[in-house]
Amino acid sequence: MGDIRHHSRLAKEKREAAHDEYIKGRYTVVGDLAIKAVEQAIEALASLEGLHFHVHPRSAHAKRIRWFKDKFPHLSGYIDMLWGAYGTLGYEGMDGDRAKKVLEAMEVILSELERETGVRFR
Q1: Per-residue pLDDT reduced to its tens digit, 61-115
Q2: 119: nearest Cα among 43, 64, 60, 36
Q3: pTM for this predicted structure
Q4: What whole-number distance in Å separates Cα of residue 91 and Cα of residue 108?
Q5: What whole-number distance in Å separates Cα of residue 121 and Cα of residue 6?
Q6: How far apart are alpha carbons 68 and 61 in whole angstroms?
C-alpha cells in the first residue's frame, strides 16, 4: 500500500513524462500520463487521511474523483476537462492542441494542490 512519498514520487514522474511525450509529438499518450499524474497526486493526498483508492481498482476512479471534487470543488472543471480530453486523445488520435490543453489542466490541478497542501509534485 502506497503512502504520500510513494504516490507523490509517481505523480512527479508521470508529470515529467507527459511533458516529454508532448515535446516528442506523441500526443495520444499525453492524456494517459496526465491523468495518471493527477490520480497519483490524489492518492498521495488521500493517503494522509488513511484512504487508498487504488486498493479497489473497480471503484477507484469514481471514489478518487468524488473525493477530489469534495475536497477541491474549485478544481472540478479542470478534472472534467482533463478526462474529456483524455478520451479524445486516446481514442481519436493525434491532436497537438488538445494535448496542450491536457497539460495545462494537469498543471493547474497539480500546482493548486501543491499550493493548498504543501505537498510537492515536481
Answers
A1: 999 999 999 999 999 999 998 888 766 766 666 667 888 989 999 999 999 999 9
A2: 43
A3: 0.91
A4: 24
A5: 11
A6: 10
Q: Residues 10-63: pLDDT tens digits? A: 999 999 999 999 999 988 889 899 999 999 999 999 999 999 999 999 999 999
Q: Among positive and negative, which fits the CA dihedral 10, 58, 1, 45?
A: positive
CA distances from 116 to 18, 71, 108 (A): 23, 11, 12
Secondary structure in 3-state letters for 25-44:
CCHHHHHHHHHHHHHHHHHH
CB environment 16-30: b (16+ within 10 A), e (fewer): ebbbebbeeeebbbb
Q: Please give the span between the terminal C-alpha atoms of the chain, in angstroms, as a whole number.
A: 22
Cell 514520487 appears where? Answer: 9
